[in-house]
């Protein structure tokens, strides 16, 4: 991180792109294979953060860094969307998306599809982070504070489920020590409920 800031982010990304292509475009560390939901093309979802971010992206061909990384990218990684398909969506939607800079940021930073060559940990969060960084949660259909139930924000169960199911690949990452300890300390019944809730969200991704 220190080196890339000294030499410049764009130069770092350009070097990364040429060093890892053409294999980079097919990287899929977590073996995620879902297609992007149909509402990625119209913004018709009850999740307020995604509704506004995607609608803005479609209308203006632009979104802020946090919207791209911690709303669209965050949800995509937690839900298990295929990273190459997400990359193609970003490339087609954003006016400033040139492949040499967009692909590394999507596959490397946003989706951790390269297994940590670019970023040292997956950039994911529950609803709490989105609430702190925006006002999307205030009038959302879902409750930012609930993990389980019909009104529970999908980001919450998907967040914990992500670390539970990918424990073999992430449990030794020192930057994830706190979240891994939290999971170890979780009640077994809560873990079961989280996994069931996340599974339901993924199975019904088109109607979230």
CATH class of the largest domain: Mainly Alpha
Please, what is the oligomeric state? single chain
Could you say what the CATH architecture of the largest domain is? Orthogonal Bundle
Distance between the termini: 36 Å
Instruction: Find the structural class using helix and strand composition.
Output: mainly alpha
Uncertain segments of ≥5 residues (pLDDT<50)? none
Largest sheet: none
Radius of gyration equals 17 Å
Give the tally of β-strands.
0
Helix content: 55-70%
Strand content: under 5%
Tally of distinct domains: 2
Mean pLDDT, to the nearest integer, reads 95
If you consult CATH, what is the topology of the largest domain? DNA Cyclobutane Dipyrimidine Photolyase, subunit A, domain 3
User: What is the CATH H-level superfamily of the largest domain?
Assistant: DNA Cyclobutane Dipyrimidine Photolyase, subunit A, domain 3
Query: Shape, please?
Result: globular
* Count of individual helical segments: 11
The succession of helices and strands, N to C, reads HHHHHHHHHHH
């Amino acid at each position: 991180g220190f080196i890339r800031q000294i030499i410049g982010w764009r130069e770092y990304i350009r070097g990364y792109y040429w060093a890892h292509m053409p294999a980079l475009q097919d990287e899929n560390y977590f073996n995620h294979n879902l297609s992007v939901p149909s509402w990625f093309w119209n913004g018709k979802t009850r999740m307020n953060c995604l509704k506004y971010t995607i609608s803005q992206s479609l209308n203006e061909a632009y979104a802020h860094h946090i919207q791209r990384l911690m709303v669209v990218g965050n949800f995509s990684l937690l839900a298990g969307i295929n990273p190459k398909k997400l990359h193609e969506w970003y490339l087609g939607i954003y006016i400033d998306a040139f492949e040499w800079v967009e692909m590394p940021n999507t596959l490397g930073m946003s989706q951790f599809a390269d297994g940590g060559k670019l970023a040292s940990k997956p950039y994911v969060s529950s609803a709490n982070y989105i609430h702190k960084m925006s006002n999307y949660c205030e009038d959302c259909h879902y409750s930012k504070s609930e993990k389980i139930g019909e009104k529970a924000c999908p980001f919450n169960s998907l967040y914990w489920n992500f670390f539970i199911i990918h424990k073999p690949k992430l449990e030794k990452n020192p930057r994830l020590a706190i979240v891994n300890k939290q999971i170890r300390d979780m009640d077994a019944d809560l873990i079961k409920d989280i996994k069931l809730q996340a599974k339901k969200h993924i199975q019904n991704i088109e109607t979230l």
